[in-house]
Amino acid sequence: MPPRKIIIDTDPGQDDAVAILLALASPGEIEVLGLTAVAGNVPLELTARNARMVCELADHAHIPVFAGCDRPLGRALVTAEHVHGKTGLDGPDLPEPSMALQDAHAVEFLIETLRREPSGSVTLCPLGPLTNIATAFRQAPDIIPRVAEIVLMGGAYFEVGNITPAAEFNIYVDPEAADTVFRAGAPLTVMPLDVTHKALVTGPRNEAFRALGTPVGNAVAQMTDFFERFDKEKYGSQGAPLHDPCVTAYLIRPELFSGRHVNVEIETTSELTLGMTVADWWGVTDRAPNATFMGDLDAQGFFDLLTERLARL
Question: Which position among 82, 197, 243, 261 bears the catalytic label?
Fold first, then answer.
């Protein structure tokens, strides 16, 4: 089979960076058409910078990077420097990017690409707030049936929230955008905290990255060294979960993941549960299923794949 064409929509973020590296290391399965940056973990200026830094780290400076929306659809931006550091990629000492941003807006690139490529041939991979994707869908609804699949990191059910008691960060930052995407009707696969919290970087797993002895391996180990402090303190865990690489790992080895096709609604009005992903896991409503909501993964298989692929860069 030819590699799957994807667009990675991202707000790097150390775990976003690892997700991007995994995709770039897997040309047999994945063809990255471009990266679209969105405001999220840090403001847009930094996420657009970080996306280019990651491409250059992987020696893939030919990948086009587009800056997108700098704020949510109807709310003030909430960021996560307390997790990712002031740059969003604190940890490794990476050089400033020399590759230029593309002139076009990310939303323009999304629309033009989905109209140009054969219908059903492009998968969207959002790793951050869904502002760019929702804006494209609102501006050009004709592209929605042309999307092959949306595979995103966001939401939670059993793990509830990580930015509020009820909400996961990516969905909470722009719940209106998430609501637009979940209601759009495109095939949707969701990697919630229920899965990503099982993709835990333990000490031995991080040492396996460092033992690669490459700039990529060292950078990934340093990224994890930095942001694991937050999760260890918060959850009492042995390390940090690699949230976003679950998206790209699924594209390569879907058999590592299991879940259910259920209805998922996004809370957009309640102050108490704003941004909650209300997943009908037990089928207690008559609402039609609209998403494959993952619930488990083979963690060791995931890390074996990740380490093997990063060694290629």
Answer: 243
Q: How many Å apart are CA 71 and CA 78, to the nearest integer?
A: 9
| Secondary structure (3-state) at 210 | helix
Q: What angle do CA 86, 70, 292 make, to 5 degrees?
A: 95
- Tell me: pLDDT of 143 over 80: yes
Q: For strands 257-262 and 291-297, give the pairing.
A: antiparallel
Strands (DSSP E) contained in 87-241 are 122-126, 147-153, 188-191, 200-201, 240-241
The conformational region for residue 270 under phi > 0 = left, psi -120 to 50 = alpha, else beta, is beta
Q: What residues have CB less than 8 Å from 215, skipping those under 6 apart?
A: 57
What pLDDT is stored for residue 1 in this prediction? 86
229 vs 305, more confident = 305
d(CA 259, CA 189): 9
Of the candidates 245, 149, 240, 235, the one whose C-alpha atom is nearest the C-alpha of residue 191 is 245
By the 8 A CB rule, do 273 and 167 touch? yes
Q: Is 62 a catalytic residue?
A: no
Angle of helix 299-310 relative to helix 215-235, nearest 10 degrees, comes to 150
d(CA 221, CA 21): 13
**Whether residue 188 has pLDDT greater than 80:** yes
